[in-house]
Write a structure and sequence with these properties.
alpha+beta; Translation Initiation Factor IF3; 2 helices; 4 strands
């Protein structure tokens, strides 16, 4: 199965908004699709992976560059 990758810009949003935006977007995605999230809130580096663990999604990687985070998530069975 070829995974579909979507992107979500959550830059300049503070907690809990990055997690809420991720939740809303993943709720409209299918299992196996990927979501790449861009954040500037440093708390997202722990908040987004914690939400993913609780909801059955997998964080593939987290990258930080010049104060910006990029988080790649694979949608699991927790939604849709």
């Amino acid at each position: 199965m070829v995974s579909v990758r979507q992107q979500l810009d959550a830059r300049h949003l503070l907690c809990p908004l990055p997690v809420i935006r991720v939740q809303d977007r993943i709720g409209r995605m299918a299992r196996g699709e990927q979501l790449e999230v861009f954040c500037t809130d440093p708390g997202a580096a722990s908040d987004v992976p914690a939400w993913c663990r609780i909801n059955g999604h997998r964080v593939i990687w987290i990258r930080e560059r010049e104060g910006e985070l990029a988080i790649l998530i694979e949608v699991g069975g927790g939604e849709r």
